[in-house]
Amino acid sequence: xxxxxxxxxxxxxxxxxxxxxxxxxxxxxxxxxxxxxxxxxxxxxxxxxxxxxxxxxxxxxxxxxxxxxxxxxxxxxxxxxxxxxxxxxxxxxxxxxxxxxxxxxxxxxxxxxxxx
Amino acid sequence: xxxxxxxxxxxxxxxxxxxxxxxxxxxxxxxxxxxxxxxxxxxxxxxxxxxxxxxxxxxxxxxxxxxxxxxxxxxxxxxxxxxxxxxxxxxxxxxxxxxxxxxxxxxxxxxxxx
Lengths: 116, 114
Hints:
A: 116 residues; B: 114 residues
């Protein structure tokens, strides 16, 4: 299995809703990432988990709450979002970087989020 | 700090032509990697090609090759015999050994016309 999967593909939510995005990989990767991507822009890093521990939080508002229940699964919990949070949310994973020759990231297909 | 610059926001060529996408970068690190990612309109980001900075030989993957000029900090992507399926956003990215972040350029929107 050489892919990163994300569910759902599309999500529409109101500003008072609580929803979650899910990401899964079975490549044995130990680093997992959440990115936010606006149209025609590069991905913006939000969070990084390394060996199931949060290692990077790019000053993301608390209405986004990541969770890494195990080495294969990454969640992003959403609560009280704003319309400007509408974007494509990408998940990625990469091999354990200590000892590897490069830090290539494998991306999932993304979740298209619309906040009304 | 690392930066990546893609100076061509959009490019358009005819099918079967060769096209070169430009990328320049800046880093003070000695151990780093460079990547070209492709994001078609279907949106999944796919790795096209990678280059380790310590390797002098330019990477190639079938119709895709790079021109890595380390001293000039330049990393261009050449697509030979372009195909309609090459239509996509192309992002140049820099990763530093031991760091977990990739630094992306702003992207080049490439359109291959029939």
